[in-house]
């Protein structure tokens, strides 16, 4: 008995288009044709289509199936490789679900690692600070990132933070110096409590790249007076 393309597709639980595609990519041999020109498929074709569909449903690509050949054997090595890939995918999806749950529960930004989420939900954190944190997560090493996450979650409120956020670009010399002097002790205490804030050796692209990237971000996110205050604070810290 011979089947048409439509009939073999129905028997295999697939589509005529899929059967024709298997021919096009060399997975399925072309059958003989009737006198009227129509293809006539036999049992060997059906078995082959069923094998292709089964392996495809398991997750193998058509190129992987082609590499296995036509023999109807037990591709143990390929199956084990696929099983390992699926295990890694499942693990990744489980991590994603955990992060999604955290994002949904706390309504936090989606562009930050989960350990930064609680801190960035703080309404007192400025948009510029949030954006700077995003940049930091892309350039710092794991130890420094953990130090920043710990600092953000546990740091006491700086009484002059609001003044810094509201500092106008044309603030005078006295205002800048006064703000820097009142902020320096707070910043110094953060570095003392979280020594990992210093750029560590595990930064993926090195300390120079971190300084350059963070410097670019700071120049883009803060106004000239705020940047000057940061420089003055840095100078005061270096004096000690």
TrEMBL record:
Keyword line: DNA-binding
Keyword DNA-binding: yes
Annotated InterPro entries: DNA-bd_dom_put_sf (IPR009061), MerR-type_HTH_dom (IPR000551), MerR_fam (IPR047057)
Taxonomy, superkingdom: Bacteria
The UniProt record lists the keyword DNA-binding: yes
GO molecular function per UniProt: DNA binding; DNA-binding transcription factor activity
SMART domains: HTH_MERR
HTH merR-type domain boundaries: 2-71
One Pfam family hit: MerR_1
Alphabetical list of SUPFAM superfamilies matching this protein: Putative DNA-binding domain
Name listed for the protein in its UniProt record: DNA-binding transcriptional MerR regulator
Organism ancestry: Bacteria, Bacillati, Actinomycetota, Actinomycetes, Pseudonocardiales
């Amino acid at each position: 008995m011979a089947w048409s393309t439509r009939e073999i597709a129905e028997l295999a639980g697939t589509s005529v288009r899929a059967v024709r595609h298997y021919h096009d990519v060399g997975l399925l041999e072309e059958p003989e044709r009737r006198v009227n020109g129509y293809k006539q498929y036999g049992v060997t074709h059906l078995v082959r289509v069923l094998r292709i569909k089964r392996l495809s449903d398991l997750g193998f690509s058509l190129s992987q199936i082609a590499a296995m050949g036509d023999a109807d054997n037990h591709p143990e090595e390929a199956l084990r490789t696929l099983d390992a890939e699926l295990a890694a995918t499942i693990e990744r999806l489980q991590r994603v679900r955990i992060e999604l749950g955290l994002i949904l529960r706390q309504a936090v930004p989606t562009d930050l690692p989960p350990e930064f989420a609680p801190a960035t939900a703080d309404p007192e954190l400025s948009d510029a600070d949030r954006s700077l944190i995003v940049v930091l997560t892309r350039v710092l090493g794991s130890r420094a990132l953990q130090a920043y996450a710990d600092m953000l979650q546990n740091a006491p409120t700086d009484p002059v933070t609001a003044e810094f956020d509201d500092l106008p670009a044309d603030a005078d010399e006295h205002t800048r110096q006064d703000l820097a002097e009142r902020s320096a002790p707070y910043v110094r205490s953060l570095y003392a409590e979280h020594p990992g804030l210093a750029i560590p050796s595990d930064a993926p692209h090195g300390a120079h790249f971190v300084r350059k990237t963070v410097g670019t971000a700071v120049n883009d996110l803060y106004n000239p007076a705020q940047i000057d205050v940061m420089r003055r604070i840095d100078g005061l810290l270096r004096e000690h």
